[in-house]
Amino acid sequence: MEIGEKLKSSRLNAGMTQEQIAEKINVSRQTISNWENGKSLPDVISLIEISDLYQISLDDLLKGDKKMMKKIEKDTDTVKSNRTMMNVGWAMLICSFIFTIWNNYSGNNSILQFISAAAPWVMLAVGIACIAPSISGKKKD
């Protein structure tokens, strides 16, 4: 059974209308309807609120619905995005180091001198911007 069918069945078992549910979890009645009809999927926070409201476990709500599980996985995949940002940051820091060295050996070409002088600072800033959120997000022991 898909999540929409489970949501509708649980709501009916609780003897509540779509409007009542919508008011309790701060969404529109149309949103509840869309979830129940499979037109859209609820976010994780709404699922938790619905689980509490219907007194049904998240496990029971989610089991068997691969589409919903993929949505949750996509919505909560911060580890992958943090890893990508870290890789971009380190690549920028390495490139800034290379451009700094290249600046010393670029000869008399004024355009190359300008690029090789400015690029390390730009890349350094981008690198730090990419790495800083990941570093500051780590828990201190």
Task: Using brief descriptors, characterize the structure shown.
single chain; about 140 residues; mainly alpha; 434 Repressor (Amino-terminal Domain); 2 domains; about 75% helix; about 0% strand; membrane; Cro/C1-type_HTH; Lambda_DNA-bd_dom_sf; transmembrane; transmembrane helix
Helical fraction equals: over 70%
Total separate domains: 2
- Give the CATH H-level superfamily of the largest domain: lambda repressor-like DNA-binding domains
Catalogue the unreliable spans.
Answer: none
Radius of gyration: 25 Å
Mean pLDDT score: 80
**CA(first)-CA(last) distance:** 44 Å
**Helical run tally:** 8
Instruction: Label the overall shape.
Output: rod-shaped
The CATH topology name of the largest domain reads 434 Repressor (Amino-terminal Domain)
Judged by helices, strands and strand pairing, the structural class is mainly alpha
Biggest beta sheet attributes: none
User: How many beta-strand segments?
Assistant: 0
Q: Class of the largest domain, according to the CATH hierarchy? A: Mainly Alpha
The CATH architecture term of the largest domain is: Orthogonal Bundle
Report the portion of residues in β strands: under 5%
User: What series of H and E elements makes up the topology?
Assistant: HHHHHHHH
Pfam families: HTH_3 (PF01381)
Organism: Blautia celeris
Domain HTH cro/C1-type: 7-61
InterPro entries: Cro/C1-type_HTH, Lambda_DNA-bd_dom_sf
